[in-house]
Amino acid sequence: MSISGLCERIDDARELRLSLLVELRRLVPFDAFAWLLTDPASEVGISPIADVPCLADLPRLIRLKYATQLNRWTHQLEPIVSLHAATGGQLERSLVWRELLTDHGVSDVASIVFRDRFGCWAFLDLWRSGGAFTDEQARALARHVPDITAALRRCTLGTFSRSTEAIAGGPWLGPVVLVLNDQLGVKGQTPETERYLRALVPPDGHGPPVPAGAYNVAAQLLATEAGIDDHPPTARVHLDGREWLTFRAARIGGDIAVSIERSSPAERLDLFWRSAGLTARETELLDLLATGADTRAIAKNMCVSEHTVQDHLKAIFVKTGTTSRRELLARAVTP
């Protein structure tokens, strides 16, 4: 199936990325990859799929990725930039290449950012050994970025209409805390942390489960402290069904504390309107609706007629696949 066909047909972000990687490899050969979804507002990575030779050293890879300014997805103006082109062939200018990728024979990295006016939805690094990506190959990849971006955003919206299954052992109560050092090694956790993390990361028998979101918000905290990037060290992570969790990193003494708790109604609303592609006025109406305001109160607050409020509501229903105010709020606010 074509890339555009996959983008139209598949509703799950993981399945979509795995299917797209097959087609992208046919289009432009590569030897390894790391594809992370991102919180559209903070642009911090979540929910990765990866096949890289240093996967066992994942915390170090994440820390170095966030610590380098060169080809950083948050700074990237073009949808795709190759490391070879950005450095003029001097790959040692890249911290992540100098400290890690060179040991694995990586000769170029094509960094692709999936961003639209509603936020940044993902970034993908394609690694190549024994050669560089050509300008023609970069253009071939770039042609598909708008379709893939729209599909990833649609997959995020789809999570708000799923049914939620209970976590084994009981419902999510949270918050829980995971303590890391500056090398992203685990130092400690609150008593209930592991049970919840098992819901985010399937057990593999190799130490405590640590979701990639925890490493990513911690790495972003280190990046903000170093003045590399000013996005907040926080990210919303999809758990199951309509359930979203918020990860935050902060300093406690010399350690990094990552808190994980259920996303607040305001955090869900922000993610919902972004993924639905609502306009500023539609978003304003949705925020008012969430406060319990009726049509008359909404019209007064927005300085429009009640008829205009109904027109905005109809547009919101179409974009979100809902048919009533009750259904709209149930999806946007309630896990």
General description of the model:
Helix content is 42%, strand content 21%. The chain has three domains: 3-161, Beta-Lactamase; 176-264, Profilin-like (3-Layer(aba) Sandwich), CATH 3.40.1840; 278-333, Winged helix-like DNA-binding domain superfamily/Winged helix DNA-binding domain (Arc Repressor Mutant, subunit A, Orthogonal Bundle). Strand 9 (243-252) and strand 10 (255-262) form a beta hairpin. With 335 residues, the protein is of the alpha+beta class. The protein has 14 helices and ten strands. The two termini are 34 Å apart.
**Overall CATH class of the largest domain:** Alpha Beta
CATH topology of the largest domain: Beta-Lactamase
DSSP E strands, number: 10
Largest sheet: 5 strands, antiparallel
Poorly predicted runs? none
Count of separate structural domains: 3
CATH H-level superfamily of the largest domain: Transcription factor LuxR-like, autoinducer-binding domain
Q: What spatial form do the alpha-carbon principal axes imply?
A: globular
Radius of gyration: 21 Å
Distance between the termini: 34 Å
CATH architecture of the largest domain: 2-Layer Sandwich
The number of distinct helices, counting runs of at least 4 residues, comes to 14
Q: Which structural category fits the helices and strands?
A: alpha+beta
Give a brief description.
The chain is 42% helix and 21% strand. The chain is α+β, with helices and mostly antiparallel strands and 335 residues long.
Defining key terms:
335 residues, alpha+beta, Beta-Lactamase, Profilin-like, Arc Repressor Mutant, subunit A, 3 domains, five-stranded antiparallel beta sheet
